Amino acid sequence: MRSIAVDGPSGAGKSTVGHALAVRIDATFVDTGLMYRALTLAALDRDVDLDDALRLGRLAEECVIEVEKPSPDQRDRLETVRLGGRDVTTDVRTPRVDRAVSAVSRHAAVRDAMLGVQRAVAMRGDVVMVGRDIGTVVLPDATLKVFLTADPEVRAARRAAEMGRPDRVDEYLAEIRRRDAADSGRDVAPLRMAAGALILDTGELDVEACVDAIVSRLEELDA
Ligand code: DC
């Protein structure tokens, strides 16, 4: 069974590259960011204090969060995320969730609850799992660890183009910088490059080139 851990900062292209890789090598794709986003939505809907580690940890254990393959007609997404059976794929990408997700995901109790679910998925078959702490914490024995990165300016420009809002590039840049600082600066499972990770800069390489580089490395490991 193979597991490929893909980590990196917000907007580095982890989902796009990870999904393309999963298709190429016929593995299950799991975007762990969606899980933290679904939990954040649950917390906001219930007015849970985002500093209340105990309540958030309990909520993480109680909530049923499922990440699954979309049906063939759902072309607007790479994965569907459900919260208690409800499709929340669109709701988890709102600015309201963007602003709160770092605060929710910094608590140890929350991360502990997520860890079990994420490791269980990797036990079921070949997996490409993307996030912030996959190579360092969730799957420390992954077959291959990849760290995707790009300059904040490159990530912001890409996000603005995706959203069709080139006029808002400065806002996206500020949000990316804020999230980079929060994700890298937290005490528990901060964003770090795993030892031995294959580092790819998505400002220089397109999706195809990244997937090619990862597949070549996998082939070297198999040889
Ligand atoms: O990848 P994303 O932007 O959808 O992730 C949303 C947030 O979730 C991100 O700011 C940090 C958190 N996250 C995390 O702490 N650990 C992960 N493995 C994945 C995401």
Question: Could you explain how this protein is built, in words?
Answer:
This protein is of the alpha/beta class and 223 residues long. The protein has a single domain, classed as P-loop containing nucleotide triphosphate hydrolases (Rossmann fold), CATH 3.40.50.300. Helix content is 50%, strand content 15%. It has nine helices and eight strands. The strands form two sheets. It has a five-stranded parallel β-sheet, sandwiched between helices. Strands 3-4-5 form a three-stranded antiparallel β-sheet, with helices on one face. The radius of gyration is 17 Å and the shape is globular. It starts with a strand and ends with a helix. 38% of the residues are buried. The model has no long low-confidence stretch (mean pLDDT 94). Bound molecules: 2'-deoxycytidine-5'-monophosphate. 2'-deoxycytidine-5'-monophosphate is lined by residues 10, 32-33, 36-37, 101-102, 105, 131-134, 179, 183. The site of 2'-deoxycytidine-5'-monophosphate has 14 residues, from helix 2, helix 4 and helix 8.
